[in-house]
Structure formats: C-alpha cells, structure tokens
Design a protein that fits this description.
The complex is a heterodimer of chains A (293) and B (347).
Chain A: H1 2-33, H2 40-55, H3 60-83, H4 91-113, E1 128-131, E2 134-137, H5 138-160, H6 162-172, H7 174-179, H8 184-210, H9 219-230, H10 235-259, H11 268-279
Antiparallel strand pairs in A: 1-2
Helix pairs in contact in A: 1-5, 1-8, 1-9, 1-10, 2-3, 2-4, 2-8, 2-9, 3-8, 5-6, 5-8, 6-8, 9-10, 9-11
Chain B: H1 13-16, H2 23-37, H3 39-43, H4 47-68, H5 77-93, H6 99-118, H7 127-147, E1 155-156, E2 161-162, E3 165-166, H8 170-193, H9 195-205, H10 207-212, H11 217-243, E4 245-246, H12 253-266, H13 273-298, H14 302-324, H15 328-342
Antiparallel strand pairs in B: 1-4, 2-3
Helix pairs in contact in B: 4-8, 4-11, 4-12, 4-13, 5-6, 5-7, 5-11, 6-11, 8-9, 9-11, 12-13, 12-15, 13-14
Classes of the chains: A mainly alpha (293), B mainly alpha (347).
Chain lengths: 293, 347
C-alpha cells in the first residue's frame, strides 16, 4: 500500500514533469495572447510523430533538434497565417480556429504516418531501475531530468533575455508594453513558437515513454487540467499543476483504476477540472478576477 | 440588416412581426418545404443523407440557441445527445414506453441534465465554461461506457412504432424526422423573437447590463442550457431510433466539435445557420465517405488517407471561412441575395 503510493508518487512526478512542460507552453500562450489553444495536444502529437520519423534516419539528438526547429517554424507559421487575420475576433471564433488547426495537424500527421503506435528507433534507455524497493521506469528519470532542465532554461530565458522580458511585459500589461516599444506581433509570434516547442518536447518525451499514436493528442487535455488547476495565466501555476496532475493521476487514479472501476485514470484530470472550476475557478495561482454590480 | 424590396409596405404590426416577412421568403420557404416533402422521389437512396442532416440540424439548432444567441460556449453538446439517445433507448426498451412518449421525454431528461450543467455558469463564464462543458463531455462518455452494455456501452433498440404503424423503412422515418425538424426549427425561430429570446440576446451582449434591466441571469442561462440540451436530446433520440444500435462512439468529443463547427460555419446569429451548417458538415463528411470507394478503385492508397483527409479538408474550410466570412454561410447567402437583387449595378 505504502509502496504503491510511494512508487506512484515518484512515477507521477516523472509524468507530471512532462505535463508541466506541456502546460507551460499552454499557459505561456494564454498569458501573452489570451488564446485558449485547444490544438495544444496536436502540437504534442506533431513533436512525437516528427521526432520518431526523423529518428529512423538521423541520430537521436539531431532528430530532436530538427523537430524543435520545425516546431518553432510551425508556431511562427500558425501565428502569421491563421492568428493574425483573426486578431480582435470574438472568443468563440478563435477557439474554433484552434480546434480546426488541431484537425489539420492531426490529419496531416496521421495521413503521413498512419494511426498505429510507433516507437523510437532502438538504442534508447529502457527498463526499470529499482531504488529502495520502488520500481521506476528508467525513461521516466531521463524525461523528468530533461523536463526539469528545460523548465530551468525557460525560466532563465524569461528572466534575462530581452525577448523574454518583452514577452513578460506584454503578458502583464499589453497596452503599456506596446506603448513602451514592445512589438505585440513579435511577442505573439514568439509565444506561438514557444508553445509549439514546449509541446514538441513533451511529445518527444512522452513518445520515449509510451510510443506515439494519434491518442497522444489527448495529452493536451491533461495540460489543460494542469493549467486550470494552477491558474490559467500563471506560469509557476502551470508547473505545479502539471506535477500535481501527474501525481494525482498515478496514485489516486491508478488505485481506483486497479481496485474499483476500470479506466478511471483517464478521467481523473476532468474530475479535477470540474472540482477546481466549482471551488476556485481562477486556480491555485491565477489572477483572481472580481466582478461586482 | 434587413434588406427589403421597394414597394413592400407593412400595414399592421402582425405583418411586420411575421417570420417570413417578404414574398421572396414566403415563396422560398414554401418551395423548400415542398422540396423536402418530395425529397424521397428525387434523392432516391441518398435519402439517408437528408435524414442525417435533419437530425444534426435539430441538435445544432439547440447549440445555436445556447452559443449563438446566449453567448455560452459549450463543447459538450454531444453528451446531451448521448443522454437523449440512451434515455430513449432505456425508456422504450426497459419501460416499454411508446416512441411518441419517449421522444419528448428524452428531451426533457436532457433538459434536466442541461439545467444542472448550467448551474455553475453563473460563477464561471467564457473560456472556463467551455472547459467545464468539455470535462462534462468526457465524464458522460465514460459513465455511459461503464454503465451500459457490459463495458462497451452499445445498446440496441426496436423500430419506432406510432400506433399501429411500425416505422421500418428509410422513407417512413424520414417523414417522421421532417415533422420534428420543421416544428423544432419554427419553434426556435419563434423563441428568439419572443421576450425570452430577447432576454437571452441581452445576456449574450452584456450580462451585467442585462441584469440591471431586470433579466434574471440564472434563469436565462439555465433556460438556454436546458433548451439547447432539449434539442440535443431530441436529436439523440431520433438518432437512436434511426440507427437502432447506438454506442458511445457516436457521441464523442468529435461530434461535439462537429456541432460547434456546424453553427460557426452556418452562421452563429442566424436562425438558418444551424441548418445550413449541418447540411455542409454532414455532406462533407458523408460525401467523402461516399466517394472513397470510387477513388480507391483508381488510387488504392487513398483508403488510408481518407479519414485524415476529411479532417484536413474540414479544418481548412473552417479556418478559411472564419477568416474570410466570420458570419458563416448565412451571411454569404445574404450577400449573394443582395448581389442578385442589385445586379448588375451594385448600388
């Protein structure tokens, strides 16, 4: 029992770190553009599929590098071709457009590489490490380390680089930032590129773990749960939310899944979404928005 | 923006309030209804296409009441359709109710569920509400899979029966559907010009201003959710009796997104929008299914990409339409009519 939860905790943290990374891209995009990107799961899918396809022809690091580059370009392209003409359109149109975008990305990926589960080329770490009686997927350790390193890189980027500071400024107060010479268009473009890159890294890491098929797109919804839990417009919230979702899913979800009703793990994230929206709609760290008559 | 032909004067309020206010619309609607009634003769065995369009148009009308006229985004419309479908399956199967009683009852059941889902809508709005309905969609799917039919969620129904008639054939069912379709469409058109509909639109435009004017926000939003769920429940019940074998695969998030796509493509704030949108979306997806075998004989590799291709075409049309004409097909039709009215001089 204790071992189950301890193992769940550690494996949950490992998955959660990937969710956190994906949720980071999501929250970042929402914070700087106010767009709820329902195609985020498809960006994850894009990273996973492309990296696997490339890993069969290139060495693994090169494949990942090219994937990230492609994700960045995809982000810029989305902003330029689809989002800019829709600037200022009502909320629903923008949500629908991200949904349609998700359709296109998924259609292209599945059309090119088929819907079956695909694995990375052999030669990558697999197997289980046992530490203090708790079995841990070795892939999990590597992906958690990668996710942690990337979160650090993102943090440094937003703390010290000029683009990062401009993006934070625009996210904080769009109009003021614009008056002070921050190009909103460029910020939006960078936000999309970052969201796509964060999603793609998440896709690669999850692909290492489970293999990639079209269902990977649903991970975007778990990232959604993570940002709702952490607060839609909070970057630390996204990270904490991602970790929490990972842990709750593997411990509570895994327990009920194994002992009470089958398949419960898949919907834990949605139950969390509903509970958070009922109790604390702005999440753990989100900006509280008060409206009174 | 109403464009009225010159010389068409209204001499009473009754004429001014008429749903079909000009001769063009009266004749057009009459022709449309006539064409729909005669459809089995000119569509042949493609009548199933029109039946599907009709069922989804009823559901989309409900969503357009909620999203287009009340401004509440719902990404869980298929869940209400599922509730209606399974509700009527249980009512006719386990309780032996006649079809004509089960149809409205499943709508009422969906109405109740919709009203419950609406309750948080006072506290959360906009994006958050959309996410909550999305979560509701997944929870409903999950519940149905685990509660019905030994973990598969599939359930079969008997053919609908009205009095002594058993509606077995495609054409008989089509006429039943057509009646429900017309009644529900006209009801929605009447609803949105009534006091209730105006209140819903006030809520959409600015909820606090509406509240100041004395509109009960909770009641309006709950009613809108309930009505939209009622329509979805009717559509679900019809769909269940039409297919006679339902499974959760019919009511997934994809269907919900299709619904949203229908009302957006058709035109959000038009009463014709959901019907046009349903026709477009269903023709697109079914059309691709119909031509697939023909294309496969020429190009064998097409079979593998047919489904992804549908998604790509669908997404592409949606994006282009939203960028090019945010008002949807209804706005395009209006522009076309105006162009033809004024042709060849555009002033």
């Amino acid at each position: 029992m204790i071992e189950f939860f301890l193992g769940g905790l550690i494996n949950g943290l490992a998955v959660g770190s990937i969710y956190a990374l994906i949720a980071l891209g999501f929250a970042l995009l929402y914070k700087s553009t106010k767009i709820l990107n329902l195609a985020h799961g498809e960006l994850v899918l894009f990273g996973g599929y492309l990296a696997i396809a490339l890993s069969h022809v290139l060495p693994f690091p090169a494949a990942v590098f090219v994937t990230l580059l492609a994700a960045g370009i995809l982000g810029f392209a989305i902003e330029r071709a689809i989002m800019r003409p829709l600037f200022g359109q009502p909320l629903l149109s923008v949500i629908i457009v991200t949904l349609a975008l998700g359709y296109i990305v998924r259609g292209v990926m599945v059309g090119l590489w088929g819907g079956d589960t695909r694995q990375f080329a052999a030669g990558l770490p697999t197997g289980v490490t046992v530490i203090a009686g708790i079995a841990i997927q070795r892939v999990g350790i590597y992906s958690a380390a990668t996710a942690a390193a990337l979160l650090l890189v993102f943090w440094l980027f937003f703390r010290y680089s000029l683009v990062g500071i401009a993006m934070r400024a625009a996210a904080n107060e769009q109009l003021t930032a614009s008056t002070l010479g921050v190009s909103l268009r460029r910020v939006f473009a960078y936000a999309w590129a970052f969201a796509a890159i964060a999603g793609a890294v998440g896709g690669v890491l999850l692909g290492l773990w489970l293999g990639v098929n079209f269902a990977l797109g649903f991970v975007g919804l778990k990232a959604l749960a993570a940002v709702i839990l952490g607060g839609l417009d909070s970057i630390p919230g996204a990270i904490v939310g991602g970790l929490l979702i990972g842990v709750i899913e593997t411990t509570v979800g895994g327990y009920i899944d194994a002992h009470i009703i089958y398949g419960f793990k898949e919907i834990v994230a949605f139950i969390i979404i509903l509970l958070v929206l009922m109790i604390r709609p702005y999440g753990l760290f989100g900006t509280e928005h008060i409206e009174r008559l | 923006m109403a464009v009225r032909p010159a010389g068409d004067f209204k001499t009473s309020y009754r004429q001014d309030m008429a749903l079909l206010d000009t001769a063009f619309y009266r004749w057009g609607f009459g022709l449309l209804v006539a064409a729909l009634i005669l459809a089995p003769f000119w569509l042949g065995h493609f009548i199933f296409l029109l039946t599907t369009i009709g069922i989804f148009a009823i559901g989309a009308t409900g969503l357009s009441l909620l999203t287009g006229f009340t401004g509440q985004i719902s990404l869980g419309h298929a869940a209400f359709m599922a509730i209606g479908a399974y509700g009527s399956a249980v009512l006719t199967g386990n309780y032996g109710l006649p079809f004509l009683a089960a149809l409205p009852l499943s709508g009422v059941l969906a109405f109740a569920c919709g009203a419950i889902v609406a309750l948080p809508s006072l506290r959360i709005k906009g994006l958050y509400l959309a996410i909550a309905t999305l979560a509701f969609q997944f929870l409903t799917e999950y519940t149905i899979i685990h509660a019905v039919g030994q973990g598969l969620g599939a359930i079969s129904l008997r053919a609908p029966r009205i009095g002594p008639w058993v509606l077995r054939g495609e054409i008989q069912f089509y006429y039943l559907l057509l009646a429900v379709w017309l009644v529900s469409g006209v009801f929605a058109a009447n609803l949105i010009r009534s006091r209730v509909g105006l209140a819903l639109m006030a809520v959409r435009d600015r909820d606090y201003a509406a509240q100041v004017m004395g509109i009960n926000l909770l009641a309006s939003k709950t009613l809108a959710f309930g009505m939209s769920a009622f329509y979805a429940g009717l559509a679900g019940s019809l769909w269940a009796h039409y297919n006679r074998l339902i499974s959760p695969e019919h009511f997934t998030i994809v269907t919900s997104i299709d619904y949203v796509a229908m009302i957006v493509m058709g035109g959000l704030t038009s009463i014709w929008g959901p019907h046009l949108g349903a026709a477009l979306v269903i023709s697109l997806s079914q059309g691709l299914k119909i031509i697939t075998p023909a294309v496969v004989t020429i190009l064998p590799s097409f079979a593998k990409v047919a489904t992804p291709l549908r998604e790509i075409v669908f997404g592409g049309i949606l994006i282009l339409l939203l960028i090019w004409e945010p008002g949807g097909l209804a706005a395009l039709a209006r522009k076309l009519k105006r162009l033809l009215d004024l042709w060849p001089f555009s002033y």
